[in-house]
Specification:
- There is one protein chain.
- With 253 residues, the chain is α/β, with parallel strands linked by helices.
- Helices cover 42% and strands 15% of the residues.
- The chain contains 7 helices and 7 strands; from the N terminus they run βαβαβαβαβαβααβ.
- Helix 1 crosses helix 7 and helix 3 runs parallel beside helix 4.
- It starts with 10 loop residues before the first strand and ends in an 11-residue tail after the last strand.
């Protein structure tokens, strides 16, 4: 690992960050000098991510995002280790089903909402009360372009991400002026989570994008770094679409 910059004095909690988008976000924050707590379900993967990011600046707390005890433990551990939690990035998510919502198992729908929406609210509440209410900060919710329009065959996921976008607005309104809350809505990013959408046909999938490629985790990491920086101090309640231009094709025959 390359030499790290001086510490920024800021601390972030990034959920679902042992790999993929969450890891890309944590990597971007560490690269600018933040100390970071990352969470994930798999203990071995989480330990490996901590080592890769730098164990002198990063800690990991294993658990499931929708578990209230895990949410509490992650925030408490961050406060114990670093004394503050300026930034929260709600990245943990799931999409365990593919098919029409007419046949969707409602228990699966509940699981999607618990992980993708309710857990984000839980983490936001806990970071607010632990630090941000009195000291300020920023929250970034990882939504999806699936939450902006119809998303055939991943409808439950899309509906949950639409809820995440509205949650962002609700939190931004309630937490102002101390805490800014924004969302990022990526299109397809090359991660294990999304590989079913492009595996074996990446060139074909990328051809639909005006920028001629799929996203990579660092694209979202850089955006999250911006939304938690002083450069975005007058931005709150917004959803920044990071999609390689795919929405430019909307309505094109």
């Amino acid at each position: 690992m390359t030499e790290l910059p001086a510490l920024s004095g800021k601390v972030a909690l990034v959920t679902g960050a042992s790999r993929g988008i969450g890891y890309g976000v944590a990597e971007a924050l560490v690269a600018r000098g933040d100390r970071v707590c990352i969470t994930g379900r798999n203990e071995d993967a989480l330990k490996e991510a901590v080592e890769q990011l730098g164990a002198d600046r990063v800690i990991g707390v294993v658990g499931k995002a929708h578990d209230l005890a895990h949410q509490t433990a992650a925030v408490e551990r961050t406060m114990e280790a670093f004394g503050r939690v300026d930034f929260l990035v709600n990245n943990a998510g799931t999409n365990p089903v593919f098919g029409p919502i007419a046949d969707l198992d409602l228990e699966v729908a509940r699981k999607v909402f618990e992980t993708n929406v309710i857990s984000a609210l839980g983490f936001a509440q806990k970071t607010w009360h632990a630090w941000q209410k009195d000291n300020g900060g920023a929250i970034v919710n990882i939504a999806s372009v699936a939450g902006l329009t119809a998303s055939p065959f991943i409808g439950a996921y899309g509906i949950s991400k639409a809820a995440m976008i509205n949650l962002t607005q609700q939190l931004a309104h309630e937490f102002a002026p101390r805490v800014r809350v924004n969302a990022i809505a990526p299109a397809v990013v090359k991660t294990k989570f999304a590989e079913a959408l492009y595996e074996g046909r990446e060139a074909e999938a990328a051809a639909a994008y005006p920028l001629a490629r799929l996203g990579v985790p660092s694209d979202i990491g850089g955006t999250a770094a911006f939304l938690t920086s002083e450069q975005s101090d007058w931005i709150t309640g917004q959803t920044l679409v990071v999609d390689g231009g795919i929405f430019l094709n909307a309505g094109v025959a």
